[in-house]
Amino acid sequence: MFLIIGLGNPGKGYAHNRHNVGFMAVDAIADSYGFSGWSARFGGHIAEGNIGGKKTFLFKPMSYMNLSGNPAGELCRFYKIPTENVLAIHDELDLPLAKLRVKRGGGHGGHNGLKSLDEHLGKDYQRIRFGIGHPGDKDMVSNYVLADFAKAEEPTVEACIKEIATHINLLLQGDDAGFMNKLSLAMKE
Q1: DSSP calls for the chain
Q2: Model pLDDT for residues 143-155, shown as the tens digit of each residue
Q3: pTM to 2 decimals?
Q4: Is 145 exposed, middle or buried (0-12, 13-18, 19+ CB in 10 A)?
Q5: pLDDT digits (tens, 9 = 90+) for 70-90
Q6: Residue 92 to residue 129: CA distance in whole angstroms
Q7: Distance CA 40, CA 152 (A)
Q8: Active-site annotation, residues
Q9: pLDDT (tens digit, 9 = 90+) per residue, 49-72?
Q10: Domains of the chain: which residue ranges?
Q11: Sign of dihedral through CA atoms 100, 149, 7, 40?
């Protein structure tokens, strides 16, 4: 069993914020793979389905970003999903728009959602770091991440999210390099 967590904040006011790119990505994965509808459980919205022959849960914690780990930990304990079978998709200030990095473990880099996941799951989960760019001044970060993507950025963000959904099965198979190659080729076109 696998768990893909999209990090974000609940509520319509946050729906298109840069900080909610994780929610956007799991929504696209659910659509691409015909997952069940979303239901409210474990303090979040959960959908279940199958990706490449692997039973997979998609999860959007509804506890706000800085408390995401508690509901995610509850879900993992209930279904006995090992941390190494957990993948978190989150925004990343230190990468240019729609540039991705895949990594397992590591620090939270000041990201409150990752900090919370680390506290409740440990650090051995996999991450898709989705670049949102940096506003250039650390005092502007909070407003920047809680703002919507600019109109000019939306097509690039949507294309990248679509490619994540199309090729997510490669990550669940352990083919990180294949996933990154597919994304890199698709985003160059």
Answers
A1: -EEEEEP---SGGGTTBGGGHHHHHHHHHHHHTTPPPPEEETTEEEEEEEETTEEEEEEEESS-GGGTHHHHHHHHHHHT--GGGEEEEEEETTS-TT-EEEEES---TT-HHHHHHHHHH-S-SEEEEEE----SSGGGHHHHHTSBPPTTTHHHHHHHHHHHHHHHHHHHTT-HHHHHHHHHHHHH-
A2: 999 999 999 999 9
A3: 0.96
A4: buried
A5: 999 999 999 999 999 999 999
A6: 5
A7: 34
A8: 19
A9: 999 999 999 999 999 899 999 999
A10: 2-188
A11: negative
Name every residue whose Cβ is closer than 8 Å to that of residue 49 and which is 6 or more positions away in sequence. 30, 33, 34, 35, 36, 55, 56, 58
Specify the amino acid at residue 81.
I
CATH fourth-level superfamily of 2-188: Peptidyl-tRNA hydrolase (3.40.50.1470)
As given in the structure block, the two tokens for residue 49 are: 């389905």
Q: 58 near 47, Cβ under 8 Å?
A: yes
- Hey, which residues does 47 pair with through a beta bridge? 58
Residue with tokens 């199309």: 166
Compute the chain's Rg from CA coordinates. 15
| Residue labelled with tokens 């209930």 | 78
Q: Average pLDDT in the 14-26 region?
A: 97
DSSP strand pairing (44-51 vs 54-61): antiparallel
43 phi/psi in degrees, rounded to 5: 75, 25
Residue linked to tokens 């160059």: 188
Tokens 């099965």 label which residue? 169
The answer to whether 23 and 16 have CB atoms below 8 angstroms apart is no
C-alpha 30: how far from its chain's center?
13
